[in-house]
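FAQ
Q: What does a multi-component entry look like?
A: The components come first, one per line:
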Amino acid sequence: MSEMQTPGHLTLEEQARERKKKGHIEIRDVLNINSLMDIMTILLVFLLVSITSDPLNIRQSDDLLLAKSTANFTPEDSIPITITKRHVIVDNKLVLQIKCKIAGHECTDQDYADKVRCFDGRHQCSESRLQQLEAMTFYIDKADKKDSNENSFLVVPLLKRLKDLVEHQKRENERLGRPFKGIATFIADRDLPYRVIVEVAHTAGEAGIFDMRYAIIKTNSRYGI
Amino acid sequence: MARQPSQRRHATDEAGDINLTPIMSILVILIPMIIYAFTFFEVKITRVALPKMGQPKQVAKEDEKKPLLLTVLVSKKGFAIKMQEEMAAEPEPPIPKRPFTVKLLGKERKVVDYDYPALYTRLMRIKKEHKDERRIYIHADPLIPWQVVARVLDTTRYQLEEPAYDDLDKWAHAPLKRDSNGNPVPLFDDPKFTVAEGGS
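Then the predicted structure of the entire assembly, as tokens:
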């Protein structure tokens, strides 16, 4: 039996035709685009509000993976100093390069990629490669330091850029009648050595920034996993 | 133009709804783009005072209490704690790295890492004797990764429910000790980086 018969011996199609003749409203199963539109609009507004309310707006990559911590202080409007594995960026402008050495030579793109992949379990690496990657050293070139002195903590191009920014902010705040707070937020990669962090922080202090904050990713575990 | 009565019954509404399909098309493209740019992690900050060059020195006036100058030294081997000599009853023994079992991507892995629970336990003992002290100096070797320093800051900031921990997992997930107002009880929550002098 191909078509279902009803007690009145009419097929379903015939019944529908009958109903139409008698003036019944036909209900069609179409997707209501209005509800979808509502969902999309709410989603769009939520995403736009979330993005614009984030003062740091950090995008993580293999070159910039933040340290994890349970610290719970909310970021404030401040001068962002981003220190990735390759660059120092102040207020979205590239200021200087971070150098990298591995086994006596300059790091390649493969080394940078392996530094992340081999330790987060995405890639199987040999024990010797892991040891090599652990000894990967990031540093600020002595040519960028005061008097080209390797031991110096003062990074000259960074000092210049920060001094300009501080002056600009001071003038702007004076015009608006607001006090200058001198806050900087360091957005630093988790693998960078303490020395680089302190060199950047010391230089910021010399430029007149005395309130330093360090961006982290909030986790519930103190160990980060 | 007037319709005939028979046509009027079947007439469709000419002033129809707005065609939402093009708007939907734009939204369908726009939303994945925004989601791609969206950060699905919570970024917070941790505060640390301006780094100090050289060993921490504080000259106290005669009538003032001498500063503790509590310093956590971070090296490749582990932690060491130093304080103003006459204030420490006996020199603090170092806290070497030790093996731990951690769960990584669902698998149990053995790692040799810094003994953060032991550092916390030791700092809690010092806090008992120096209740008002909040300043702590962090002195790391130049090549110590920032992640390790961030964890040290995490360890030193607040008191946890227990005064001592041995297990890494228990310490890592231990809830904060809170006062009657519900605020976390500080341990040494005023950290300052120090570095060995060597030009400026």
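Q: Is there any commentary attached?
A: Sometimes. For this entry: The first helix of chain A runs from residue 12 to 21.
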